[in-house]
C-alpha cells in the first residue's frame, strides 16, 4: 500500500499567487523524482472549531487562508529517497524569510494508508 505525506499551513492571502507558483514548481519536482501524486488545496469550507480545527492548528491570522496538501508515494522507502532528492535539488533552495508562508506554523508528517478505495 502507498505512503502519504500530509501538510497543513497558513498562507497570507496576498501571497497566494506566489505560493501557487512555488507549489507548481515543487509539484513538478516531486513528480519528476517519483511521487505518484502531488495535491495542494486552499480552504473553501473551513471553520474554526470549539476544541480544534485547521485554523486553530496553524494559528490562522486575519488575512490568511489554510492550505491542505498531500503527496503520495509508492512506499515509505520511496518517500524517504524522493524527499532527500527534492531537498537537495537547487531549484527549491530558498531562505525561510523568502517563503510565501510562515513555515514555523506548518504541520506535516508521514502516514501509512489505513483504507483505500
The secondary-structure class comes to alpha+beta
Treating each run of at least 4 consecutive H or I residues as one helix, how many helices?
3
The CATH class name reads Alpha Beta
Beta fraction: 25-35%
Strand order, largest beta sheet: 2-3-1-4
Q: What order do the SSEs take from the amino end to the carboxyl end, as H and E? A: EHEHEHE
Q: Which residues form runs of ≥5 with pLDDT under 50?
A: none
- Using the coordinates shown, work out and report the CATH topology: Alpha-Beta Plaits
How far apart, in Å, are the first and last alpha carbons? Answer: 11 Å
CATH architectural category: 2-Layer Sandwich
Counted up, domains total 1
The total strand number stands at: 4
Largest sheet: 4 strands, antiparallel
Helicity, as a percent range: 25-40%
Overall average pLDDT: 93
The shape is globular
Q: Radius of gyration, Cα only, in angstroms?
A: 15 Å
Pfam families: DUF1428
Organism: Lysobacter capsici AZ78
Protein name: RNA signal recognition particle 4.5S RNA
InterPro entries: Dimeric_a/b-barrel, DUF1428
What's this, in brief?
With 117 residues, the protein is α+β, with helices and mostly antiparallel strands.
